[in-house]
Amino acid sequence: MARAPAFQLKSAEQGGEILRWIDENVRELRKVFESTSKHAKLLRVVPFLVGRTLFLRLEASTGDAMGMNMVTKGSLEVANFVCKQFSVDLVTVSGNLCVDKKASFMNWIRGRGKYVVAECVLAESVVHRVLHTTPHSMERVHVAKNYIGSSVAGTVGGNNAHAANVVAAFFLATGQDMAQVVESSHCLTQIQRLTSTVDRKGTTDSLYCSVTLPCIEVGTVGGGTGLAPQNACIQMILQQYRNAGANGQLSDSQILASVLAATVLAGEVNLIAALSSNELVSAHMQLNRGTTS
Predict the structure, then answer these.
(1) First to last CA, the chain
(2) Cross-strand pairs, 148
(3) Which GO terms describe its biological process (predicted)?
(4) What is the mean pLDDT of the segment spanning 202-219?
């Protein structure tokens, strides 16, 4: 998780002095930051000097909590410490380089929360039987929609079919911060047709599918996760994950982020298949409309 205080300096020259000091005193800043919480661990201090304004992007691990309040508290302590060292003014503890609840290349590149990649390979027979389409057709729709269409539209983190739908539903069910759907649904979907030789009669296609989500902001403690229905949903997900004998090295919040990414992947495959088979409208009419008497 990240927070980025903004400071007003006397000059850009003073900014250079502070940058050199930060380089030499990261351990001290870490000690100040971590004095505010037994769970928060300061990982990096990333400075951005813009004229006489200095931003310090403080990136920290926060255990199983999403950790926004935790990181804000530590960031304020660090900001006050810097102000005392250099007699500069703290303009705001949150200077928008965090970047919280906004689409941004900063989060896309540096990440915020959990960085997760989920992938699968579907046999051609499965694509035919279950999804009613072909690997070639799905790849074609994916390129036109998620790559070309999203590029022309100028989206940030939007090279996907509908990741936000799945993220929003998951956030509601598990008590996450709904406004953080904005950046948590940043997603790059990949759908690639693979050709492999089966026998002398010819070849068959398979389909590689993946989603990359660089800033999933979820927690299993704190905030809305303590509400009874949402907590029950979280516990069910964690228990099912463990019952499946999956990776036992993951923390609870990492498990939650991994399950979310897998669910996004399923949603991406489903929608691209529906578009390539031209079943989207008919499916909505059949499944998403109530009957009237």
Answers:
(1) 52
(2) none
(3) coenzyme A metabolic process; isoprenoid biosynthetic process; sterol biosynthetic process
(4) 92
Angle at 70 between CA 69 and CA 74, to 5 degrees: 115
Tokens of 155: 């989206």
CA distance 77 to 99: 19
Q: Which residues contact 174 (CB under 8 A, 6 or more apart)?
A: 218, 225, 230, 233, 234, 237, 256
Mean of pLDDT values over 208-223: 96
Architecture of the domain made up of 112-287: Alpha-Beta Complex (3.90)
Sheet holding 114-123, edge to edge: 114-123, 202-216, 188-199
Residue identified by tokens 């809305």 is: 224
Q: Which of the four pLDDT bands, split at 50, 70 and 90, describes residue 247? A: low
* Helix (H/G/I), strand (E/B), else coil: 190: strand
Coil, strand or helix at 232: helix
Residue type, 251: S
- Domain edges within the chain: 2-92, 112-287
Rounded-to-integer distance, Cα 81 and Cα 121, Å: 51
* CATH number at 2-92: 3.30.70.420
Residue 241: partners with Cβ closer than 8 Å, 6 or more residues away: 255, 258, 259
Residue 242 pLDDT level (bands cut at 50, 70, 90): confident
What is the number of residues in the chain? Answer: 293
CA dihedral sign, ordered 84, 85, 89, 90? negative
Please give the backbone phi and psi of residue 80, each rounded to the nearest 5 degrees, phi first. -65, -35
To which residue do tokens 């499916």 refer? Answer: 283
Question: Each residue of 151-168: pLDDT tens digit?
Answer: 999 999 999 999 999 999
